[in-house]
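Supplementary Methods S3. Complex input for the L434P2JQ-bound model.
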Amino acid sequence: MAQLSYVSGSVGLITLQNPPVNVLSAATRQGIMESMKKALNDPKVKSVVICGQNGVFCAGADIKEFGPNISGPSIVPLIYDIEVANKPVVAAIEGSALGGGLELALTCHYRIAHSKTRLGLPEVTLGLLPGAGGTQLLPRLIGIPASLELITTGRHITAAEALQLGLVDHVTQSDTVDSAVKFALSVEGEPLDSRRISKRPCPHLPDLDAVFEAVMQKVRQKFYGAIAPIACVQAVRAAATLPFSEGMKREQQLMSTLFTSGQARALQYSFFAQRAVGRWSMPSGASWNTSKARPVHRAAVLGLGTMGRGITVALAQAGVSVVAVEIQEKQLNEAREHVYATLERGAQQSGVSPSCANITYSHDIQAVADVDLVIEAVLEDLSLKEKVFQQLSAICKPGTLLCSNTSSLDLNCLASQTKNPELVVGMHFFAPAHVMKLLEVVYGSKSSPEAVATAMQLGKKMGKISVAVGNCRGFVGNRMLKPYIEQSYFLLEEGATPELVDKALEEFGFPMGVFRMSDLSGLDVGWRVRKEDGLAEPVGTSGQITRLRGGRRYSPLGDILCEHGRFGQKTGLGWYQYGRPGGRVAKSDPWVFNLLEEYRARLGLTARPIDQQEVLERCLYSLINEGLCILEEGFASSPEDIDVIYVFGYGWPKHRGGPMFYASMVGLATVLERLDHYYRSNPDVPSLKPCKLLRQLVASGSPPVHKWKEITKKIQNRL
Ligand SMILES: CCCCCCCC/C=C\C=C\CC(=O)SCCNC(=O)CCNC(=O)[C@H](O)C(C)(C)COP(=O)(O)OP(=O)(O)OC[C@H]1O[C@@H](n2cnc3c(N)ncnc32)[C@H](O)[C@@H]1OP(=O)(O)O
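Predicted complex, serialized as structure tokens:
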């Protein structure tokens, strides 16, 4: 796992050999320790270079090993041994130097990096802090403000930025190991004391208290409820105020609290879940490793409203050449300007040149004739989309993949309008499409595995986390949102206020509660769908309100708001008031309180006190229950799929893993008991009825999430 060889006569070259990314597993740590000892004891060796096999330095500790019993040598003493070495040790950094990998490099006396390397301390994203001296060494090397920023965000930086910060000594464009060996030869015999970072004082910061206070406030706001960023700030403060050895003790104390926390488990689960969703499968048995994606060199986006513009930007930024089509001339011109400005802004932020040259605009649908893939993003209207798919099927060259950005319509209906339904898949982006990481790739009953593989690969190229899901109403994300929103309306009927419900959900960790979120996305969208479904009927100011519709309880509260022209932020009024159309700051609205009182009086409902616990249980457990139904019915292939969708598309707090992981942390038996309880008192609300899979999981002893698949499969085989 780490190999010592001898080069250029006097250099001991230690190569980490743990593919694919040379993580510091027990065997690797052992290997480094033994190789180091051998090199230092060998009189022929005058300097040491540490590098990683296959162009990757080291991606840090092996996250899979984290748990109560870590075997093998501990990282911290190993790293100390390197720093105190009496021969110069040079890190030859290429690929990635992350977490424990960067800490390993920090204890070397010199750091040479290839220009394409990414460096960082991403432990905070795993619910941890850089616990192998990173919080004490980095501030001594690059100063407190820069260290705080890197450690609390976990951001990966380029070699150029690392050089500018003083994190590396030299950046090379040629062979990194060769450069490091040459460098090691040049410093043999030189004194090392000034190269030992632990011996340096932390650079003085005059307004220390103010800096730490400001950063603490920022992380509390930005990462609401997350404990790791706070511990990171506390650890860096120790570097600024304590001698190195004391600071190390503080780092270890903070690390051990984080290490066993539920948040760390959730975030580490999420790390692997993000990678697991790439290994998709379909109920037919087709999967990522049996299906080949087609290359997409040229894509078209049809319909340049908000979604189409975002998709155009994301494709261009991914280096795909785009034909952007909008039939209305005015909208086309506006879109062109908007896309240009967004690309310019993005380029300024990232420092790379904008990709505007990749885009051609047209108001003629014939312009899509020779593209490899089309993403349709016209209005969410079934008959319009059906017509568009008929046209696309006639115009496009044979084999062109036809994708729809629909968020709610039946993909099979669209596919049935084409000559080749196997070439039709859903690509459900989330607004703003060039920013949001999630992409639901929806397969219909006839979608070919090749079409799914192509959409998944294109999503990856666009920097998205793509999840393959089946074609049920609302797909996975929006389907689960329905019972969650429904419960929030019922809670209002029973005595809650939008403020109370939102507060409970925001304290849980959502960036916005359900009512603020609905105001942002527009209340009229759901209203239109409910009207199409025959659910929303005019309520008026007098007369009977029917609460039972389609055999289940229905709350018309959202419809009433829409009847009053309250569509949310865009009209300045919704569940809250915003001062003006397009206003962003939500303020309580007495009109809503009056409405709720009058509504309850009309229905003979008595308001009762509702606490935050009930809000969370009813909103979250009904959403979780729907997710379990989706798994049971096979529309998602694993709980990880659902969790990734919720974390990256719906603001589920990252440090809670996702709804399925959260349910397992709360205890499936508890979720089942509470759903049973609420369903007993609300038998006309089917979404509270615990699904078969939940009962089965509890009956099987509530196995951890990664074992649910076995039980899901059994239920599906029986269906
Ligand atoms: C009681 C208290 C005691 C506490 C004592 C603890 C002592 C603590 C001392 C030190 C602690 C150090 C903490 C850390 O170092 S935590 C790890 C920090 N590192 C990271 O977060 C890096 C994570 N990896 C990545 O960002 C990427 O994988 C990257 C390296 C950029 C490569 O990206 P890419 O090329 O896209 O490849 P993949 O992401 O698909 O990864 C390839 C496979 O490798 C697996 N992988 C990657 N990193 C790790 C890791 N650190 N541990 C385990 N496995 C890792 C990844 O899952 C992929 O596997 P698979 O193909 O099976 O999906």
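The chain has a mean pLDDT of 95. The pocket of L434P2JQ is lined by residues 20-21, 23, 59-64, 75, 96, 98-100, 122-123, 126, 128, 131-132, 255-256, 259, 272, 275 (CB under 6 Å).
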